[in-house]
Specification:
Layout (H helix, E strand, L loop, with lengths): L27 H8 L4 H14 L5 E2 L2 E2 L18 H9 L17 H14 L2
Antiparallel strand pairs: 1-2
Helix pairs in contact: 2-4, 3-4
């Protein structure tokens, strides 16, 4: 096993695993509930697509990647960004931000990007 530390409080001179004082085992069901859309019939496909294509970089309800911004906490991103801008940014981030680390998601196509957008919006 490997342990990885991030953030403040890390002893940069001696990051030894012997400093570990606690591990917490969490039920995957509990985590899955925080990622589940309240309307699976309407947004289940978008949820599946988000988990497959977005979650490695973006978190939802503080679960997932940390490279890109959180999508729902403290406010859902679609409360202050239009759906059309969200889709356009996902399709080609470099058209909005120079040196954006996000890959172009246009390979998903507009229909799948709309489904992901619907899922993200449903989580607010």
């Amino acid at each position: 096993f490997y342990l990885v530390w991030e953030g403040e409080g890390i002893n940069k001179q001696r990051p030894w695993p012997y400093q570990l004082t606690k591990l917490q085992i969490v039920s995957t069901e509990r985590i899955a509930m925080r990622l589940s859309t309240p309307d699976p019939e309407a947004h289940g496909e978008g949820e599946r697509l988000y988990k497959k294509h977005c979650m490695s970089c973006h978190s939802m309800n503080l679960i997932g990647g940390i490279m890109g911004p959180e999508m729902n906490v403290p406010r859902n991103i679609l409360e202050y960004r239009s759906e059309s801008d969200f889709i356009a940014f996902a399709a080609n981030p470099q058209a909005f931000r120079a040196r954006s680390a996000m890959i172009k998601m246009r390979y998903l196509g507009e229909d799948k990007l709309k489904k992901i957008t619907g899922y993200v919006k449903s989580m607010s």
